[in-house]
Amino acid sequence: MQGGNEMELSRPIARSITLEGRTIHLREPDHVKSRWIGQQEIYRFLISALLKTCPEDRAMFPVLVGNPGAGKTTLAMTMAKELNQPVYIMNCTSDMRPEDLIVTLVLGENRQGIYQGSALVSSLVNGGICILDEANRMNERTWASLASLLDGRDYVESVIAGVKIHADPEFRLIATMNDDSSTFSLPGYIESRLKPVLPVPPPSPRELVEIIKINVPFIPEEFITSAVQYLSSPEGKRKAGNFSIRDAINVTRYAYRLKLPLQESIQKAVEYVISSAGILNA
């Protein structure tokens, strides 16, 4: 699902903002090189959640749910490209603190403390799209710092800097969440505001071929098609299980490098890329 050209933004990007005499330095946007293949229904559902029907309307805060490697982040990044907005990705972790999500105090030149805005704050100021990636890895205390943003007040408050940072009207937020046992349950007052919840389905075999072609354009299409056919076969399903898009890309890439007979290359790639992955989690 990766590919395409970088976006050219129609509005300037602020590098800092000064509030109540405190200067907060902002992050650069993430570079977008993404393209969504097929599955137009989920694409339409997501853009419908982000667009306003009139000036009085409010954008929603959608959640993309699916297995790791299903393309959730790619879909969110593609949406930023579609709407011509800067995109900021916040990688969420279980030990993330509220200040990590908003503003931190770091050492600058001459060992002086400077306020550094997070991806979320940079997106708020610049009217961008913030992707909270793997958002259900955050703990409840960190989620609580977003209550004032999600409940209609449209700001976050930095305890460290002692300021409120209001959202630009164009700001949008998309959360992605994996469905696995290593995540937290969201507090009810947050969960009720993160809507709609959109499951990201797996692509069809034909769509999967197109996705892999974009990621490894140097591999012949016939080779890619053979890899997808094997993964979709009864034997492939038995050995690969519920493989992700990322798995399929890595299997094809590795099989092509092995330079063995075609089927043997694919079978070995499945064995070492997917079937043995459980060793790392043992």
Task: Explain what you see.
The protein has 282 residues and is an alpha/beta fold. Helix content is 38%, strand content 18%. The strands form 3 sheets. It has a 5-stranded parallel beta sheet with strand order 4-7-10-3-11. Helix 8 crosses helix 11, helix 9 packs across helix 10 and helix 9 packs across helix 12.
List keywords for this structure.
four-stranded mixed sheet; elongated; five-stranded parallel sheet; disordered N terminus; 282 residues; alpha/beta; 12 helices; single chain
Element-level helix/strand string: EEHEHEHEEHEHHEEEHEHHHHH
Biggest sheet character: 5 strands, parallel
Q: How does the helix and strand content classify structurally? A: alpha/beta
Helix content estimate: 25-40%
- Through-space gap between termini: 30 Å
Number of strands: 11
Mean pLDDT: 90
Count of helical stretches: 12
Strand adjacency order, main sheet: 4-7-10-3-11
Q: Globular, elongated, flat, extended or rod-shaped: what is the shape?
A: elongated
Estimate what percentage of residues fall within beta strands.
15-25%
- Rg, nearest Å: 21 Å
> Low-confidence runs (pLDDT<50, min 5 residues)?
1-5
